[in-house]
TrEMBL record:
InterPro entries: DUF1827, LMG18311-like_sf. It holds the Pfam family DUF1827. This is DUF1827 family protein.
Length: 93
């Protein structure tokens, strides 16, 4: 698996996140057919994985946490929709 930085292709999303929320850092990645949006504020880290074609797999979630979160063994909360096409990871700092 490879995370590819595609932030430049999502300028409007990044601009909107920075102007309408309290986040101060936004990155967008591609993980094959799964899109990954990483946001960071002074208090928390938020990661959203989205795949329109299938459920987001557990190994994709673990891979993204391992690659993007600098803390060792972070404590996080997973939230997902009923179909598991969208998964949100919330990590308090």
């Amino acid at each position: 698996m490879h995370l590819i930085d595609v932030t430049n292709s999502y300028r409007d999303l990044v601009h909107s996140q920075l102007n309408t929320t309290n986040v101060n850092y936004v990155k967008v990645y591609s993980l094959g057919n799964t899109s990954v949006i990483y946001t960071e504020s002074d208090k928390a880290i938020g990661i959203v994985l989205e795949n329109h074609n299938r459920r987001v797999r557990k190994d994709e979630t673990e891979f993204v946490i391992e690659r993007l979160v600098k803390q060792k063994n972070p404590s996080y909360v997973l939230t997902f929709d009923k179909s598991q096409h969208v998964i949100e990871i919330h990590i308090d700092k």
